[in-house]
Specification:
By secondary structure, the chain is of the alpha/beta class. Helix content is 50%, strand content 13%.
């Protein structure tokens, strides 16, 4: 019997060894949040990290074996990678049989310049997403898929409350405000980061991490970030409450507005007083 190549092993493990950890949660998200519909043409956005590369393989499997027919393109934006990172992304894509469509921008340079050389992460993220929407639409796509996972969802919720003074997180899908008819979907919404890491390690895969030039010059940026603080906090809380993560995740699916003194909806602010006398 001929030995399978690495890309074949990686694909097989998604529905065999890691079926419970990866394939199951992925399919649950696709179905629960209705992320993929018949006739969709989806730009699966590849950053070169472990999350987007796994998402690409899962989306390939979904297209092959799913019941809903759709089209997809694996879109990789080069925002200004150095030669080493660009090469690593292309090599990994070839290794995993992911057919990349690459386009180039100067997002890193523009965001750094506009941000005064400090930490222009928010601006960079907005510029990257805008460029992805624009290129995806040019390629005839109606959706872009990003690799945000379960841990991103709960960490964002905690960061928002602790540091942003509000309760919010990232939804599994949303309509674009600036690109009419376009949607953003998050197929890894229920997939845990630790399981993504386990899959990559099992196959000996190494992906790029943060390729931002600012972060590369300032090694303390990542370790000292608010997200890293929240990761550390949740890790500590998990020692005494193993279900802390799923509790946070479930809580963002079960918000009880009747008990909140205020909330935001549709861009407007609302108070419990608006309906208090009606009770």
């Amino acid at each position: 019997m001929r030995q399978m190549e690495l890309w074949q092993q990686a694909e097989r493990s998604l529905i065999k060894k890691y079926r419970k950890e990866l394939w199951g949660p992925f399919i649950t998200a696709i179905q629960q949040y209705q992320l993929v519909r018949e006739g969709d043409r989806i730009a699966v956005c590849i950053s070169g990290g472990k999350d987007s590369m796994l998402m690409a393989k899962l989306m390939q499997e979904l297209q092959r074996h799913g019941e809903v027919p759709f089209e997809q393109v694996f879109l990789c934006m080069d925002p200004g990678y150095n030669a080493e990172n660009r090469k690593k992304i292309e090599e990994n894509a070839a290794l995993l049989h992911i057919p990349l469509t690459v386009f180039e921008t100067d997002v890193f340079r523009s965001a750094e310049k506009a941000g005064g050389g400090s930490s222009p992460c928010y601006l960079c993220a907005r510029m990257r997403r805008g460029n992805l929407y624009a290129e995806a639409r040019r390629l005839g796509c109606n959706k872009i898929a990003l690799g945000h996972h379960f841990n991103d969802v709960i960490e964002t919720a905690v960061m928002s409350m602790f540091y942003g003074g509000q309760l919010q997180t990232m939804p599994p899908k949303l309509h674009s405000r600036n690109f009419e008819g376009m949607e953003l979907i998050r197929p890894l919404y229920r997939v845990r980061e630790e399981d993504i890491v386990a899959w990559a390690r099992y196959h000996g895969l190494e992906f790029i991490r943060c390729a931002c030039s600012v972060a590369q010059r300032n090694a303390a940026l990542e370790n000292g970030s608010k997200r890293q603080e929240v990761k550390t906090l949740l890790r500590e809380l998990k020692k005494t409450n193993p279900n802390i993560e799923i509790s946070i995740f479930n809580s963002v699916h079960a918000v009880c507005l009747d008990t909140f003194p205020g909330y935001k909806s549709g861009g407007g602010e609302h108070s419990f007083l608006e309906r208090y006398d009606e009770a």
